[in-house]
Amino acid sequence: MLKISIITPSYNQGQYLEETIQSVLDQKYPNLEYIIMDGGSTDNSVEIIKKYESQLDHWVSKPDGGQSDAINKGFNMATGDILAWLNSDDYYTPGTLHEVSGMFARDDLKIVFGECALYNEKSGKTKSSTVFEFAQSHKIEYSDYIIQPSCFWTKKTWELVGDLDEKLIYTFDWDWYIRAKRAGVQFHPVDKTFSVYRYHDQHKTGTGGDERELELASIYKQYHSELLSQKYLLRRTMQNKILRANGMNSILSKLRLNGSMDARKHLYRKHFSEITWEEFLGIARM
Fold first, then answer.
1. 23 domain residue, yes or no
2. By three-state DSSP, how is residue 115 classified?
3. pLDDT tens digit string along 120-166?
4. Is the torsion defined by CA of 80, 157, 212, 142 positive or negative?
5. Which of 41, 159, 166, 206 is the most buried if burial means most Cβ atoms within 10 Å?
6. Which of 205, 232, 253 is where one domain is finished?
């Protein structure tokens, strides 16, 4: 049975951390290496970690260079054949590690990713992701459709692609996926829910604001062009129009007219015709 190494980066999320830890340990995966990299939390995180330290392979709590630095340090000490990180506010669904382990061979250059239950803490509602569907029609270079806690890869893949870019705050996972794709790594989508992704008031993606948008634009510039970067920023100013077009497409789908009509094409022709339709679909998804 292949060894799986899970890294949990943590900083002042004690209200969620125990559920995260339990979701890993309750997998009852017999060849598990679990590492927690805490950035020097000042809440009750260390107390929670110590409660489970006999079941951990390594843990540390001291200031670090941020989330990506903690993850890199964890992976570079990990000895597993399969790697993943699970943030301290997310958690695995039962049976995930057993399911995933059967999808790899030790020497695979492969990323396996599945669906994610999207839990809104404020409303108490959960909805399903559409990762598998998007993976059939979108390129990872144009749209980050992978939801990180439901993603796994081999140690060999990590060694080929290299560390996360620690200069990035919001997009280091997408940047890493693009680098993996360009390195020839196989991407394998699975129509099965592997994790729960939690939206809450301190959720990093949801609180990034303009800083996050500019960082996303920088990814388009780095891997594509200045033009695509600017068109992404333009697209963000047209969010409501995009949403209305998506709503119209849902109606067309119910009428079985979506194969011949797409409500977004008017926006494309008017504002985005300098880029390809495929590029537009990518930035429209973001």
1. yes
2. strand
3. 988 989 999 999 999 998 999 999 999 999 999 999 999 999 999 99
4. negative
5. 41
6. 205
**Ramachandran bin of 12, using left for φ above 0, alpha for ψ from -120 to 50, beta for the remaining angles:** left
Q: Is 74 within 8 Å of 85 (Cβ atoms)? A: yes
Q: Are residues 183 and 68 in the same domain?
A: yes
- Report the amino acid identity of residue 88: S
The structural domain count of the chain equals 2
212 found inside a domain: no
CA distance 94 to 26: 8
Kindly list the distances between the CA atom of residue 185 and the CA atoms of 100, 102, 174, in Å, as whole numbers in the listed order.
Answer: 17, 18, 14
pTM attached to this predicted model: 0.93
N- to C-terminal Cα separation, the chain: 37
Q: Nearest to residue 220, comparing CAs of 171, 163, 147?
A: 171
Using CA atoms, how far apart are residues 73 and 40, in angstroms rounded to an integer?
Answer: 15
Domain residues for the domain of 233 are: 224-285
131 and 262 inside one domain:
no
| Same-domain status, 106 and 62 | yes
Cα 37 versus chain centre, distance: 18
* Local confidence band at 261 (pLDDT 50, 70, 90 cut-offs): confident
Give residue 14's identity as a one-letter amino acid code. G
Length of the chain: 286
- The position carrying tokens 């339709």 is 277
Residue 42 per-residue DSSP state:
S
Residue with tokens 């670090």: 64
User: Does some domain include residue 217?
Assistant: no
